[in-house]
Amino acid sequence: MAQKPSIPKxxxxxxxxxxxxxxxxxxxxxxxxxxxxxxxxxTPSFENSETLMGKYGEEGxxxxxxxxxxxxxxxxxxxxxxxxxxxxxxxxxxSEKALRYDLTVPFARFVVxxxxxxxxxFKRYQIQPVWRADRPQKGRFREFYQCDAxxxxxxxxxxxxxxxxxxxxxxxxxxxxxxxxKINNRKILxxxxxxxxxxxxxxxxxxxxxxxxxIGEDGVKTEMLAKGISEEAIDKxxxxxxxxxxxxxKLQQLRELLATSEEGTKGIEELTFICETVEELGLKxxxxxxxxxxxxxxxxxxxxxxxxxxxxxxxxxxxxxxxRYDDLTxxxxxxxxxxxxxxxxxxxxxxxxxxxxxxxxxVSNASDILFFNYGNTEAKYALKAIQKxxxxxxKAELYPDKVKMDKQFKYADKKGIKxxxxxxxxxxxxxxxxxxxxxxxxxxxxxLQELMSKFL
Length: 456
Description:
- By secondary structure, this protein is of the alpha+beta class.
- It has two domains: 16-41 and 101-355, Bira Bifunctional Protein, Domain 2 (BirA Bifunctional Protein, domain 2); 369-455, Rossmann fold (3-Layer(aba) Sandwich), CATH 3.40.50.
- 42% of the residues lie in helices and 18% in strands.
- The protein is built from 18 helices and 16 strands.
- The chain has helices at residues 16-35, 49-52, 57-62, 79-84, 87-94, 104-113, 158-173, 186-195, 202-209, 212-226, 231-236, 247-257, 262-281, 346-355, 376-391, 405-415, 425-430, 448-455, and strands spanning 39-40, 46-48, 66-67, 97-99, 122-131, 143-152, 180-185, 287-290, 304-309, 318-325, 339-345, 369-371, 396-398, 419-422, 433-437, 443-446.
- The chain has an eight-stranded mixed sheet with strand order 1-5-6-11-10-9-7-8. A five-stranded mixed sheet has the order 13-12-14-15-16.
- Helix 8 (186-195) runs antiparallel to helix 13 (262-281) and helix 9 runs antiparallel to helix 10 (212-226).
- One of its GO terms (cellular component) is cytoplasm.
- One of its GO terms (molecular function) is ATP binding.
- Belongs to the class-II aminoacyl-tRNA synthetase family.
- It comes from Paenimyroides viscosum.
- It is found in: Cytoplasm.
């Protein structure tokens, strides 16, 4: 007996309706990207390994899907590496390419490679799949789409303000109200580590602090102590464990905490400009929240850091994120090319909209009309009309076979087609069409022009 086919864990098939819903989300995101002046690019699904490795930290490197070299890939591998089973030494010799982990690093490579062809500041958007060898769970997949918008070639903080507005515009358009746009600044995190005398433990400090919601104050302090951060240092940042109030209140608490840190003060100035400007301009439905525990992308973010949380009624992780990177292109030899960007998590946004039942009823890939097939003569008459309808943008199809009406009715029902056109000898003689509402059962005779008007 043949084995039942399956797909790898962390990947999915999508039905026609699911694809229609995904395309709806993408169309809204794309619309707002283009309204904001971003231009589309695409990059290969796989890159040279050296382009990706070492750009995401040790954990990120482990999650990159490596592609085996073609042919006898073990032939050129050193025997000593095979005998010691040293995977870190073997991997570069048997795999020279890898699936992209995100869209940001390939974009940096694109900018460096095509720098003489681009006009700076360069605003690009990119909507393509990425792959991560992660452990699959709800909202976390091994293959998923990212929808990115980045600006490179400008250090202006107005870009951060516009990206906050872009998040707000997209989620408002999708009717996903109540999202929280969390914001922090890498310089503030560096300033905190400096003030407590633990600059060399910045990563350990921020990773522990980021777990405050999950393991609580005592758990975070225990982890910090285990990482070699002293009790005296932890006491200096006690205010962070009860960090609350308005944006201005939080900024003032940080000013007092980081008064002796030049870098931390610079971060506060940047955040103050962004937060105060956004507050003055206003947001449609999103909330902007200063979250000092936000510490994503520390390997390349140098300024503002963003993360978007779903509405509180939906228990899901982040649905977007991004930040400022002052020298991401520097890893490819192009110095002093500052950039800032954000990403929308298409798959998680889909789950949020589905859970909140926010997909419009009009989101469907079903045809508007199904012409029933009564025979060759009737089918030819129907196709002439179908051609006219399609030219005006109406989705119409002909059932391909002359079969019992019951089967054609079931076909329309399963595809979600609401109207059927019935054409027999009488209709052809009078040059009309029988239009039947398959939900109500109501039927009327219409001309071709009236049929078009019904769906335009």
